[in-house]
Amino acid sequence: MKKTIIDLFESSVEKYGKKTFLLEKRHHAFQPTTYAETREQALEVGAGLASLGIRPKDKVAILAEGSNGWIISELGIFYAGAISVPLSVKLEESNDLLFRLRHAEVKALFVSKQQLPKIRRIRAELPELEQIIVLGHIPLESGETAYGMLKRLGRDYLAGHKEEFLKIGQAIRNDDYATITYTSGTTADPKGVVLTHRNYTANVEQSLSRIDIPSSYRTLIILPLDHCFAHVVGFYIMIACGASVATVQIGATPMETLKNIPQNIREVKPNFLLSVPALAKNFRKNIETSIRAKGRFTERLFDFALRTAYIYNQDGYHKGKGWRILLAPVVGLFDLVLFRKVREAFGGSLEFFVGGGALLDSELQRFFYAIGIPMFQGYGLSEATPVISTNSPKYHWHKFGSSGKILEPLDLKILDEEGRELPRGQKGEIVIRGENVMAGYWKNPDATAATVRNGWLHTGDMGYVSEDDFLYVLGRFKSLLIASDGEKYSPEGMEEAIVDKSPFIDQIIIYNNQSPFTGAIVVPNRDALRRELDARDIREGRAAAAADILGAEIDRYRAGGPYAGEFPERWLPAGLAIVDEPFTEQNGLINSTMKIVRNKVEEYFRDRIDYLYTPEGRELRNDKNLASLRKIVE
Fold this sequence. Notes:
By secondary structure, the protein is of the alpha/beta class. A hairpin with a 2-residue loop joins strand 1 (20-26) and strand 2. The chain is globular. The strands form 7 sheets. A 5-stranded parallel sheet has the order 4-3-5-6-7, sandwiched between helices. A 5-stranded mixed sheet has the order 12-13-14-15-16. The longest helix has 24 residues, at 147-170. Helix 7 crosses helix 8 (228-241), helix 11 packs across helix 12 (328-344) and helix 17 (542-555) crosses helix 21 (623-633). The protein folds into 3 domains: 5-246, Rossmann fold, CATH 3.40.50; 271-478, ANL, N-terminal domain (Rossmann fold), CATH 3.40.50.12780; 480-633, GMP Synthetase, Chain A, domain 3. The N and C termini lie far apart (68 Å). Helices cover 40% and strands 21% of the residues.
């Protein structure tokens, strides 16, 4: 049966034509666009592309902030039979953009006025790029077409060729390519993940086996729309269910756009939100800052309410079981007095988050569950379009620390290093098979053959399946620490815990490549360190004292410390390379999904890693650590 993205959208337009699909803030309020109106505009965009010479299977990129125009442009690309190449607006380096635009052989590009300067700088180096369509009002240069003009061209084209044009979208097959999505990998150079129309519609069907979306639901997409996760859960699932999608009001700068999010949430009143760990942590930080601002009594009451809810909820799956049912009235009272007010800051209608991305700390899940906005963590990757498993609001499956249960229909196995299937509870590589598995990597047959074998996608992630069918993802195999005796350990959980529990450490990468001991590259929290030194009235030797504070943070996980036993002692860092330059997107050490790019950090600080494994470098108060800390605290 034919099930393309166009088929999915046309079916929903037929069922929900007069219902609101898109919400965008214009003239101080969110304005609705119905499913039928969206189709009309998408046809105009697609026909406009056809009038400019874009043919089926041509590649058309989108480099823009989330908006109606973004979503309508991609639908228009599909109506024209072309392939969408979504690009991250966080790509700052010209080389990163050039690589993707050249590698994908992009013939046309939708670009926002905010991103246009990046393209103008490299335009001369892109002879294959024939058309630049600009979203937003800005003076245009030669070779650029306004988005409104494209739609006018489309209207003119449809006036004489509508039936002929509609046949293009109708002719798309399930296995035709829909998108080339470039991974912003944390361990290697980007690859173009080729996803078919059926990959997307299959993953929509699979995801709906675990999550119910009534047609009355609204979401506000906070994540960048080039995310595969945002594609499927953010708007294709919403299309399938006839629900509504809002986008964040675009500011003049990325920071201004970020500042619009809290206000937009209150205005849209979403029923659920997509989240990734970095965003979830920011939400929690803002909540706690707001509570502290209300005074010491409120802060203590909130902390007591949280602890009580934690006891009542347990691991989420066993909420209120046994004697804990006696706490229900107390938890209910705290919800009425405290937690409901927190939820009002999210619009008052928010029922849950759907979480993706990196490992999500269990403590973060406990926090959001306690305040009445559970974060249903899932697992996926672009090569799987992307969702593989999730904790389920539909069935109330929620186990903190897990990535939920496998979607249906989907096959999953855990394999050892020899490729043998392992029983439940044993750790190995996660491999999956289903209609959501990618077609391959664009122009990279070797990588495709290594990743997809006999229909099974080898994820490169370590994990296990528990006796009660929950998937636990432990980290990337390529991120593993390898001791000198060959033993391996995944560091991501330890890194997350150290950053979450230490006010003095902003970022950390733990390192061991068959080394005599485990080391770590540490980026301190400048403000917290300075405040602590001031509180201790340390005026002289501040750098040395700061080094001791950071070392003590790691010691909290050793025998006798408050977190002793949380991680094996042999894998705790025995030496620290303290650096004064944070990992950022600008220096290439964080990717567009806010994940640290481990191999690039190791390359960037190679001299510090090498120094760490010298007798002097292993000392906490070594010259290089003190030099970095002087820049931070003196």
